[in-house]
């Protein structure tokens, strides 16, 4: 499970912090500081994994990070996550940000904190990896944005029109069309049909 | 990607300086939320933390006014929330906005609601009281027809939701499992998983729905359900064995590329899904042959398919290897997995190297030869610039430490320890060094010096068990009393010199250890008098850097030394100084010392020399005070009432309801405080956990004897082939053989690396040979033979001659080989040489030991070396009688007694090393507990037990030792190997190692040179 996701810049200033464990406010700040301290002194040519400090939770936990120009992306995970898998998840996250913001930069992360959180929420939910397909995430975000925008634009319109838009559903994403042939259905469980 | 970021970011400083009017996309974005932009710009421009604080506080007070103003629209509120989120992230308190975040989530339109939910999830934690206000909103949104709202509600539920309110939303979320949109189903599954984590009993009834989610037609939903299964299987794998087939089928389809192309990541089909499935399979197949067999094919397929072209395929490979080594072993797969580990370890990419080391650490218990293959890489990693790699390497070395390589490994660990500053690492490493030192220390000096290093570096952060165990070890000692005294003397001398060094600060714990040891064992010193020791301690006592707890230890040590000293000037000075101390504890100690000092004879009796391990007789009834009590009572004093009685009376007076379920709990006995001299109580603190440490030792890793269980014959054959050639060589001591083998490997490497071998490399190899010594060789034979060679008289035709030769086991081992050759000459022909060899196992030297239950009890208590192990049995085998029978037959144990579900068995290793076994059956577990006077015998016997698994699991074939029919096992009874040579022996076609005799009709003439033993 993912315990926390942190983004900070080269000066250790946090740009995004999302924790999936009930840490107190003070602990969160300490974690950010400690993590930055750990990550910052690493050279470029070393591995991307670190044993977490005492705060994050000792030997079972790990810090997995990537450094992009001025930003550090750090995922704190426990032993049930694959190190390399998380490393690629960070890559997917960054690529998704890049797609959503069209050449993402540090400023985007600060000014659109809420959007970044939304994107993250589509990838990781309650500490569990929800979606790893970039296109899928972007589609979801776009669809939501469209709906929100149309609603905001209709603010002054008659109530009936607003409710019509509100009840409009998200477009079905046609990615599982062929699923019938695949027979993911599990043969050994006839009772659950 | 990183290039792009870099490009954009280099333009950053310019953007900061530009005004909002500037053109360009980034500036347009900045103007969108201009006030946040202003804030960020302001903070970035500041230089000191203090200024930042001032600015943020100002911003927060502005925000406070805005959010509480009634005129603030929801749209403005939304913007305020974003700014609050930013402030809160920087670590400033924004609690005034929490309630407004909840309001926003309640009332806003989609966009505002989203920000409201986001703010709530960032601000509040699970048990925050305001969260209750959100429940209604969540329920409403879950019922909404708008998908976005439902999604938001599900997300917030999986992030934070009060446990006690789960019933309010549970049915709604369960309904969502049947929703037509897959994204909703997926999120619902994860929300339910969250509930499972925080309140497992509330979702028990929907386990069946999880199974439905696993069979969902959408792959995403299925993948989400794997999170739940991974968790549940980790907790209890046996309940989900029936799903193995399903997981295998799913993995097969994923690996086979049957998923839509959408799921590919860098043309690898659904890598994260594969990783998850492989983990689940590893958990399911652990120690379960039948389940494991189901997955062999798909694992093989996975290993084959994962072509090395991208990072993520390595992730899959790593999981594959992990799974292959977790499940019931299959040699083919193990071989492939071992190859994969090689790829990781040898990779130039550091991440992969790290994982390779991790994999090696994991498999080292099953297959130590793998470490031998990669020894040079491991040596290189020891000097790797990345401390994380170094640490992982040390972890690996820690697993392969034995008595032969301990000094080198500990030295490496200490080197690392001196460099690292992180507390977490120090605590961890110090514990490991102490554990290894205690277990394998080669001599006293080394042990004490290592422990000194541990104490001075580990200092006050290390686990308190370390000094306690160390002192207990010193106090209790081993079997050999002179050895113990030497160890103690060495410790005393070493501390004595350490205290001489000026201007060095030792950690408090170390000083405490020193003062205890000096107090107890200074009498062992020849030259230095107790006065000198007291002087030193007194000097230490006066230093400022010492905590009052340590001072108490020191005074206790002085107290112990005082009766041995002749002059007492310093003691008197100490008493004078500390009887006026402001610290009550120290003052108490000083007064105790003072009063004892007045009566030297009494003091000597009270503080005898070297009696720290003796039991103290405490008069718990305090009978010596009876006279005093009687006198007081007669003078009208109130009788004593125990604490709980007093409290009860007090309560009954107050007439308060008692909420305690089972009466009052009263504090532990009162007399412990009166136990007087501090020295004694310190000493008794330390002893008394001997059973615990015994357990600890057995819990820790034991490589010897276990390693060959599943491992393939990696290393031994090579050696045999080599030594087999040199039949004339004298039996070589064990160490030498191993060194030779290491050398062998090295020379192989050398040849491939041509002749350019620098001095540095040689050093590395030297290091390698000292590190990997003892690996993979623990089971070599330790047979001794005397008088090699003898001649038999001429044998008549058609007659039989017996030749008996005795083989004795010097040290226990698991398997060995006895080989030799016989030269004989049939009359008038040239001499012929016959080679033979016999495999011997430990069992050949084990005999039942017939003793009574009482004797068993006595012996049991007298033995120090014990090994415990729990073995799982299939249910049909769980009956006690069948187990007993198997033990009796297969291991030749004598059944001493059976008590209920426990059994006592005894055996001896010829000629006379007894070993006792106590075992107990509970459920399908069999708890084995061996004890013996020999330290290694229990391990080997346990290994034999595991090997003879027939009585545990009928599916495991019993390895039947194959003996040549011509060789009768005469040593069956008395452990004699007897070689029968009949003049009519038939020739046996088996290659090497069999006794061959030549068919000779004519009167023969056999000259038996001698059966020579080798390892």
TrEMBL record, chain A:
Keywords: Cytoplasmic vesicle, Golgi apparatus, Membrane, Protein transport, Transport. Signal peptide: none annotated. Part of the AP-3 complex, an adaptor-related complex which is not clathrin-associated. The complex is associated with the Golgi region as well as more peripheral structures. It facilitates the budding of vesicles from the Golgi membrane and may be directly involved in trafficking to lysosomes. In concert with the BLOC-1 complex, AP-3 is required to target cargos into vesicles assembled at cell bodies for delivery into neurites and nerve terminals. It comes from the Eukaryota. It is a peripheral membrane protein. Its main location: membrane. It is found in: Cytoplasmic vesicle membrane; Golgi apparatus. PROSITE patterns: CLAT_ADAPTOR_S. Belongs to the adaptor complexes small subunit family. One of its GO terms (biological process) is intracellular protein transport. Residues 1-147 form the AP complex mu/sigma subunit domain. GO terms for cellular component: AP-3 adaptor complex; cytoplasmic vesicle membrane; Golgi apparatus. This is AP-3 complex subunit sigma-1-like. It holds the Pfam family Clat_adaptor_s. InterPro entries: AP_complex_ssu, AP_mu_sigma_su, APS3, Clathrin_sm-chain_CS, Longin-like_dom_sf.
């Amino acid at each position: 499970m993912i315990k926390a996701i942190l983004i900070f810049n080269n000066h250790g200033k946090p740009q995004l912090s999302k924790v999936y464990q009930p840490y107190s406010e003070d602990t969160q700040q300490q974690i950010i500081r400690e993590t930055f301290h750990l990550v910052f002194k690493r050279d470029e040519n070393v591995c991307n994994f670190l044993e977490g400090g005492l705060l994050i939770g000792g030997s079972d936990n790990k810090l997995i990070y990537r450094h992009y120009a001025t930003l550090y992306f750090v995922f704190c995970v426990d032993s049930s996550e694959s190190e390399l898998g998380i490393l690629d998840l960070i890559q997917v996250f960054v690529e998704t940000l890049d797609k959503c913001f069209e050449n993402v930069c540090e400023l985007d992360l600060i000014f659109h904190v809420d959007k970044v959180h939304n994107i993250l929420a589509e990838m990781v939910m309650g500490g569990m990896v929800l979606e790893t397909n970039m296109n899928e995430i972007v589609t979801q975000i776009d669809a939501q944005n469209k709906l929100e925008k149309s609603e905001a634009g209709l603010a002054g319109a008659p109530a009936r029109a607003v409710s019509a838009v509100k009840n409009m559903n998200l477009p079905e994403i046609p990615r599982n069309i062929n699923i019938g042939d695949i027979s993911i259905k599990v043969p050994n469980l006839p009772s659950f049909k | 990607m990183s290039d792009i970021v870099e490009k954009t970011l280099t333009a950053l400083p310019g953007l900061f300086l530009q005004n909002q009017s500037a053109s360009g996309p980034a500036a347009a974005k900045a103007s969108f939320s201009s006030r946040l932009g202003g804030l960020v710009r302001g903070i970035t421009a500041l230089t000191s933390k203090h200024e930042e604080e001032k600015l943020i506080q100002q911003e927060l007070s502005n925000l406070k006014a805005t959010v509480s103003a009634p005129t603030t629209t929801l749209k403005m509120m939304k913007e305020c929330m974003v700014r609050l989120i930013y402030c809160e992230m920087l670590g400033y308190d924004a609690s005034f906005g929490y309630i407004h975040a909840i309001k926003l989530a309640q009332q806003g339109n989609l966009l505002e609601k989203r920000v409201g939910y986001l703010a709530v999830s960032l601000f509040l934690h699970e048990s925050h009281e305001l969260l209750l206000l959100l429940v209604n909103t969540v329920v409403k949104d879950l019922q909404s027809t708008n998908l976005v709202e439902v999604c938001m509600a599900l997300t917030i539920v999986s992030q934070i939701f009060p446990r006690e309110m789960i019933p309010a939303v549970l049915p709604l979320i369960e309904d969502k499992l049947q929703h037509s949109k897959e994204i909703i189903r997926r999120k619902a599954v994860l929300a339910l998983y969250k509930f499972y984590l925080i309140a497992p009993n509330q979702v028990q009834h929907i386990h069946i729905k999880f199974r439905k989610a696993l069979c969902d037609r959408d792959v995403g939903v299925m993948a989400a359900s794997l999170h739940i299964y991974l968790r549940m299987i980790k907790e209890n794998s046996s309940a989900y064995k029936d799903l193995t087939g399903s997981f295998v089928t799913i993995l097969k389809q994923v690996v086979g590329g049957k998923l839509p192309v959408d799921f590919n990541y860098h043309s690898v089909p659904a890598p994260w899904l594969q990783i998850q499935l492989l983990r689940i399979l590893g958990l399911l197949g652990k120690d379960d042959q039948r389940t494991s067999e189901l997955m062999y094919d798909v694992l093989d397929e996975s290993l084959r398919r994962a072509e090395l072209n991208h990072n993520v395929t390595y992730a899959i490979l790593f999981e594959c290897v992990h799974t292959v080594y977790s499940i019931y072993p299959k040699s083919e797969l193990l071989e492939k997995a071992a190859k994969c580990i090689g790829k990781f370890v040898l990779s130039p990419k550091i991440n992969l190297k790290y994982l390779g080391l991790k994999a090696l650490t994991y498999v080292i218990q099953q297959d130590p030869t793998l470490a031998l293959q990669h020894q040079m890489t491991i040596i290189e990693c020891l000097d790797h610039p990345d401390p994380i790699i170094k640490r992982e390497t040390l972890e690996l070395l820690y697993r392969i430490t034995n008595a032969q390589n301990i000094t080198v490994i500990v030295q490496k660990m200490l080197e690392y320890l001196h460099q690292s500053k992180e507390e977490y690492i120090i605590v961890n490493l110090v514990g490991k060094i102490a554990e290894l030192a205690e277990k394998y220390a080669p001599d006293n000096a080394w042990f004490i010096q290592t422990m000194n290093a541990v104490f001075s570096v580990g200092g006050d952060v290390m686990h308190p068990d370390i000094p306690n165990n160390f002192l207990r070890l010193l106090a209790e000692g081993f079997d050999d009393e002179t050895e113990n005294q030497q160890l103690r003397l060495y410790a005393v001398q070493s501390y004595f010199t350490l205290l001489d060094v000026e201007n060095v600060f030792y950690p408090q714990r170390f000083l405490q250890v020193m003062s205890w040891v000096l107090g107890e064992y200074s009498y062992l010193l020849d030259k230095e008098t107790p006065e000198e020791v007291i002087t030193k301690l007194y000097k230490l006592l006066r230093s400022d850097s010492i905590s009052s707890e340590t001072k108490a230890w020191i005074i206790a040590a002085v107290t112990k030394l005082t009766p041995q000293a002749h002059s007492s000037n310093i003691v008197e000075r100490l008493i004078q100084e500390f009887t006026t101390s402001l610290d009550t504890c120290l003052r108490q100690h000083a007064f105790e010392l003072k009063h004892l000092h007045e009566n030297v004879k009494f003091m000597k009796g009270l503080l005898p020399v070297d009696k720290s391990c003796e039991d103290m007789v405490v008069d718990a009834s305090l009978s010596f005070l009876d006279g005093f009590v009687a006198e007081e009572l007669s003078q009208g004093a109130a009788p004593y009432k125990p604490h709980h009685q007093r409290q009860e009376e007090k309560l009954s007076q107050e007439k308060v309801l008692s909420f305690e379920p089972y009466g009052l709990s009263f504090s532990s006995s009162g007399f412990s405080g009166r136990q007087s001299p501090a020295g004694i109580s310190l000493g008794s603190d330390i002893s008394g956990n001997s059973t615990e440490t015994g357990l600890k030792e057995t819990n820790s890793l034991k490589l010897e004897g276990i390693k060959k269980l599943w491992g393939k014959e990696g290393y031994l054959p090579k050696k045999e082939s080599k030594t087999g050639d040199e039949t004339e060589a004298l039996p070589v001591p064990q160490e030498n053989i191993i060194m030779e083998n290491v050398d062998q490997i090295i020379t192989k490497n050398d040849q491939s690396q041509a002749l350019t071998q620098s001095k540095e490399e040689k050093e590395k190899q030297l290091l390698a040979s000292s590190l990997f010594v003892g690996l993979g060789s623990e089971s070599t034979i330790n047979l001794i033979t005397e008088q090699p060679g003898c001649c038999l008289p001429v044998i008549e035709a058609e007659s039989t001659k017996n030749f008996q030769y005795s083989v004795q086991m010097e040290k226990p081992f698991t398997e060995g080989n006895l080989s030799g050759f016989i030269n004989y000459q049939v009359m008038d022909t040239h001499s012929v040489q016959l080679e033979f060899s016999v495999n011997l196992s430990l069992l050949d030297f084990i005999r039942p030991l017939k003793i009574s239950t009482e004797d068993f009890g006595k012996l049991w208590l007298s033995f120090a070396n014990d090994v415990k192990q729990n073995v799982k049995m299939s249910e049909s085998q769980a009956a006690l009688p069948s187990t007993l029978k198997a033990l009796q037959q297969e291991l030749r144990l004598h059944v001493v007694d059976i008590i209920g579900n426990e059994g006592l068995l005894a055996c001896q290793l010829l000629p006379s090393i007894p070993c006792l076994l106590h075992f107990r059956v509970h459920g399908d577990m069999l708890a084995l507990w061996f004890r013996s006077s020999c330290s290694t015998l229990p391990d080997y016997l346990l290994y034999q037990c595991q090997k003879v698994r027939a009585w545990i699991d009928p599916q495991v074939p019993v390895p039947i030792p194959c003996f040549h029919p011509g060789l009768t096992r005469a040593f069956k009874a008395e452990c004699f190997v007897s070689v029968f040579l009949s003049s009519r022996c038939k020739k046996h076609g088996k290659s090497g190692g069999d006794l061959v005799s030549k068919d000779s009709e004519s009167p023969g003439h056999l000259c038996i040179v001698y059966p020579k033993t080798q390892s």
